[in-house]
Amino acid sequence: MSDSPATPDVREIRDALANLPVSVLDLATVRPEEGVRATFEASVELARDAERWGYTRYWFAEHHNMDTVASSATAVLVGHVAGHTSTIRVGAGGVMLPNHSPLVIAEQFGTLETLYPGRIDLGLGRAPGGDLAMLRSLRREPSDSDRFPEDVAELQALLAPARPGQQVTATPGAGTEVPLYILGSSLFGARLAAAMGLPYAFASHFAPAALVEAVSTYRREYRPSERHPEPYVIAGLNVFAADTDEQAEELHRSALRSTVMRLARRDLSEADADAVLATPAGDQVRTMLRYSVVGAPQSIPQQVATFVAHAQANEVIVASNTPTAQTRHRSYELLAQALALGG
């Protein structure tokens, strides 16, 4: 018999992850055969069950000018889902702040926090969430992102208690102190979050390259704040869970094909997408989805534990881009069961 330590079993690994918060990232993906309204209905159904299964938060990401993504009016969706749930935190993961006035976002999320106290999150991103044509339509310029640190500070001040003599006050908003999170996929966001003493969410579910360096930088440079004395990292993870490993692998292949089609900006057959995946361009797509958990429930805890250690994460937020709303729903259900999220 070998003297090496025994490999932990699924129960031991699951116990080690017992206090890990796990959350849902929803892009409100529109499937052509279902339509936008069905997409929103599926989000409400998933959020209700995610609450029951033990997920910590449910976030929508702002995107524009994309036929397959319906989360453009992010604050509206946050309010819609919050109104159909009771305890799960709901928020933006995130609002692309350069697209908006900090005052408008303070008013929107101050309204949400007033309606659903203690349940609203506000993640903030610097990217536009769309192309140059979209920016022009929003009456914005690429250089607007250069003001991101100042805009975050202004938004933070608008959500704080109003000060004597303050010329502009967010009503509602002032005094709500909606929790802010800096989103990013590079060292810029990591350093800003560290300097401001804010939690940091890394988009490793689609931009994995700088994960380890960015999180290490954030933790090393972190300046404690009154609300956040310790650094806090949320890391994005793709999960393709199914009843069998073979079914999970097919969900993963479907996501790779879908990514190829999105990047190509045109409809391709599955055979065409598979042909692209067999090229160096396909290697790049696989790299984008590098951080993915793929498998039946018994294999999930070990995969999640490995990622959490690698990412130095306090929390994992999960994206599950599958061919149908039903397979997505099942993927989140199996993940919750595998990690015993509901206790």
Automatic annotation (TrEMBL):
Luciferase-like domain segment(s): 23-308
GO MF, one example: oxidoreductase activity
Signal sequence annotation: none
Highest taxon of source: Bacteria
Alphabetically ordered keywords of this record: Oxidoreductase
Protein EC: 1.-.-.-
Family annotation (Gene3D superfamilies): Luciferase-like domain
Family: To bacterial alkanal monooxygenase alpha and beta chains.
NCBIfam families for the chain: oxido_grp_1
Protein name from the UniProt record: LLM class flavin-dependent oxidoreductase
The organism of origin for this protein: Georgenia alba
